[in-house]
Structures are given as structure tokens and as C-alpha cells.
Amino acid sequence: MSESTSGRGTAVAEQPGTGPMVRVEDLRRSYGEGAAAVHALRGVSFEVPRGELVALKGRSGSGKTTLLNLVGGLDRPDGGRITVDSTDLADLGEEGLLALRRDRIGFIFQSFGLIPILSAAENVGVPMRLRKADPRERDARVELLLALVGLGDHAQQRPGELSGGQQQRVAIARALANRPALLIADEPTGQLDAETGLAVMELLRAVVRSEGVTALVATHDTQLLGLADRVLELSDGRIIDHG
Predict the structure, then answer these.
(1) Tens digit of each residue's pLDDT (9 = 90 or more) over 210-228
(2) Quick one: 146 exposed, middle or buried, by C-beta within 10 A (0-12, 13-18, 19+)?
(3) N-terminal to C-terminal alpha carbon distance within the chain
(4) Would the CA dihedral through 34, 23, 95, 208 be positive or negative?
């Protein structure tokens, strides 16, 4: 194995597909300056093993969304190190981060983020269109994913014709379109009632098993935490529990 210094001291580089899916070391992120600065993350360190569903809990303002944005390459930290699927994010420029988000990370948001004028099938197929996937391969993958999330009979319906739970299922299928190694979900059940939210979380757990992906899910719902393989608790920008 090779070594990488990258200005942080000598570290042994991992081979692709080995080690934890996510490794975060002494991560720091602040907004603003001086006395008015908000310290969103204050030296956060943890690992997410491959093939696990890890829940991230904490009150509003604890730093959950900031942390997910950093792990997903949507933002840059002020200090510390993030490794995703054996890739050090500090080594990637904007094009590299774009490729990482497109090819190896799937995002699921509280607001669903579906395109209103497209059908469920078309929404799921968008990430594969961006990669210029073969149309036959794309259509087969869309059909498989909609069946996986229990919406095979709703492929031609638009988001406005679906319930909130069904829209989130479409969003999960879309996040899986390009066979990501990592799923990042920010309060994916936040707009759903308790029963529907539990069903969506159970679906996420089943997807982790069937698709062989890893998931990092932020949630404040204590009922859903029991479905995770492990729970990390954030408070005031610090990890206080690695349960």
C-alpha cells in the first residue's frame, strides 16, 4: 500500500473497497467570525462500517445536517479529515466531488426533491440519464428499483398523485439508481406520520441489506433509532455517544 502525507502527517492509504465506508477524524466547521461565530462541529471523529445502517441523532442545531453535508462532499470543513469509500475528500477538486456524489453517494432528503412534471419512473431514471446510461439498462434498473420500494404499479404517476410516503419511496429508489456505495439521508421521515415514517425506515434497512449499501441517516425520531445497527449522538457539535 502507498502512503499519503497531504499535509496531515503520514497515513497509510486504503485500497478501494476496504476499511470503513466513512471515516471522520477531528472534523471542524464554523460559520461566521469572531464572537458571532457559530461552531457547528467541534472535533468530530467516528467511523461507519461497510454494510451498516448508522443513525445520527441530536436536537435541532446539534450539527447533524452540517455533518451530512460534509460527508457528502456538499461543503468543505475548516479542519479534519473525511474519507468515503477509501477516498480522501480533501484530495478531490470540484469535478472530483461532483463525480463522487454522482457515482458513489445517494442522497435522500426530508423534502423528497422530486421533479413535479416527471413520472415516478422518470424521476428514478434522472441520475442514470446524467451518466448517459444505456436506455435499456436504465429502464430495467428503474423497473427493478420501483418494485424494490413497492411502487411497481405507480411508475407512471407524478409526485402530486402520490402520498408523502410513496414520494419518499420514489426518492429512495432514485438515490439507488447509480448503485451508490453510501446512502446519506437527512431526516427522511420528517414530513411523514409516525406509521409511514416507520415503514420508510424499515425500507431503508431492507435496502441496506438487499443492495449491499451503507447508510448514514439523521433522525430525531426515537422509534426509528431501534432499526439502526448503531447510533451516534451529536450535541453542540460533538459526538457524545457511539452506541
Answers:
(1) 889 999 999 887 777 888 9
(2) buried
(3) 32
(4) negative
Neighbours of 93 (CB within 10 A): 8
Residue range of the domain that includes 183: 50-76+94-241
pLDDT tens figures, 124-161: 999 999 889 999 999 999 999 999 999 999 999 999 99
In a domain, 89, yes or no: no
pTM of the model: 0.87
Q: E strand or H helix at 145, and its extent?
A: helix 135-148
Is 103 a member of any domain? yes
- The domain that holds 57 is classified in CATH as 3.40.50.300
Structurally, the chain folds into a number of domains equal to 1
